[in-house]
Records
---
Amino acid sequence: MQFSKGRVRGGDGSGPSEGHHEARGPASADMPGDVPFDDPWYDALSSGWGEPSTVAAPVPAARQGQDDDVAAAEVYLEVQGSPAFQEVRSRYRRFVVPASVAFFLWYVAYVVAATAAPGFMARPVAGAVNVGLVAGLGQFLSTFLLTWAYARHARLRRDRAALELRWDTQELTRGARGGAA
C-alpha cells in the first residue's frame, strides 16, 4: 500500500506479523540506517525523515532534582491564587458561561421546534424558503457570530492580561529554578 511521501506500509498480511504495519523510510530497505517500525500512527514530518541516521537530535539535560519541580509548582500555585489570575478567569467565565447557555438554548429550541412543530417550521417565508430553513441558516450564522464575539472579547479583555501573567510566571519559574529554563 502506498502512502504520502513515497512511504510504503504493509498491512495486507504479507508483513512480518499480522495486525502490525511495517513501514520504511524513503530509502530502500537495503540501505543502512533504514529502521523498520511498528507504529501505524508514525508521523514522518515530526520524526526526522530524510535526516542522516548518524545525526541525533540533542537531548536536553535531565533536571537536577525534585527541588526544581517543587519550586516551579509553588510558583504556579502562587500565580493561580493571585488577583490578576482570578481576574482573567472571571473575565473568561463572565463571557463563556452566558454565551454557552444562550447558544445551547438556541440550539435546543431549534431542534424542539423542528420535531414538535413541523407545521410551524414548514410555514413559507418567501417563495420556497420556510421558517425551518431560515432557523437552520441562523444556526450557522450564530455559530460564526459567537466565534467572532469570543475572539473579540478575548483580544480586548483577556489577552493582554493573560500575556503579562504568562511572562511574570515564566520569570518567577526561571528564578525558582536558579535561572535555568
Note: Residues 10-29, 42-48, 50-65 have pLDDT under 50 and may be disordered.
---
Amino acid sequence: MRWFRCCGVSNYTDWFEVYNTTRVPDSCCLEFSENCGLHSPGTWWKAPCYETVKIWLQENLLAVGIFGLCTALVQVEFYHVFRALSVLL
C-alpha cells in the first residue's frame, strides 16, 4: 500500500472491520512509523487501492504479460531439464 499510496480496497475504512476498531495497517500511513495506523485518518492515504492497482496494471499490462510468459517458460524448461536428469540417474 505504501508503494501505491493507497489504503483499503474501497477506502481506508475497509480496515475498520478487519481490526474491529478505528485503525489501519501502518503501511497506510502518509509517513510510516511504528503504530502510525492508530492515529487519526488525517495521517492515512485516502486513495482506494482497487482503482490505483487497476490503473497501474492497465498501464503496465505488456510488462506484466511478458514477465508472466517468461516465468512460465523458465518453469517448463526446468521441468524438462529435471525430467531428463532423473532418467539419466
Note: The CA atoms of residues 11 and 48 lie 5 Å apart.
